[in-house]
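=== RUN LOG ===
request id: a7f3
mode: sequence -> structure
chains: 1
length: 290
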Amino acid sequence: MSLDRIKIALQYVMPKHAISRLVGKFAAAEAGWFTTQAIKYFIKAYDINMDEAKLKKASDFATFNDFFTRELEDGARTIDNNPSTLCYPVDGAISQQGDIEQGQLIQAKGFNYSLETLLGGDAKTAEPFQAGKFSCIYLAPKDYHRIHMPMTGTLREMIYVPGDLFSVNPLTANNVPNLFARNERVVTIFDTEHGPMAMVLVGATIVASIETVWGGTITPPAGSDVFRWTYPANGSSAITLNKGDEMGRFKLGSTVVTTFAPEMVEFNTTAGPGTVTRLGKHYADIVKSV
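=== RESULT ===
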């Protein structure tokens, strides 16, 4: 058996939730010298560019979570302000992107997964995105782990979907069926001037939690039920985020899947699977408005 096959087999049998929660406790702990040494090791192991971070030294961070969700220095990323374009929501690399065909998204060669399942199992939630577009971006451990808005939108619904915590790296994506529709995730649905947009924040092994700017820590709640929250479209309680605004963050990294209504956007033609993404750069063009 090859090493890759062993790695995949181990993911099926290891107690992924227990390990992830244990790592989460350490990541949230103010462990002084030990925390600083862990951060130093991580910076070196993953060749992280601290020059672009607002805080530069390992000792500047009280917890590993503070380091992992570190803020960038002002000017480190520039948001494309063209009103006819979308900007990348994260630093990472495109796993797959393209058309949603017959309710299916491409995960990897030979593997598709269900749009309806990805968005929480409700046909009405998925219906506006059927025959639309999707994009899946993987965040590596070295990447900046705050998630931003690719376009201006008003939050209409948030859905927490319990699930597994498989790793979401390319090896697993190529070998574990339905990966993004089986892992724990937070689904956010936005109304925009150009149509509906979903942003799905997918959990993974040792992802201690997922946060949003409006709800704080969303995962992990107790139990195994799907939870739904709805939000007003107008008035003082409406949550509208502008293009480039932070909308959430991963405490230890994962994947973001975005979906769009039919004929709403066309992705940057120079980008595809394997393309490195940088927050704020040209992601897609708006081709239709509602």
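=== NOTES ===
The CA atoms of residues 161 and 226 lie 5 Å apart.
Residues 85-286 form one domain.
=== END ===
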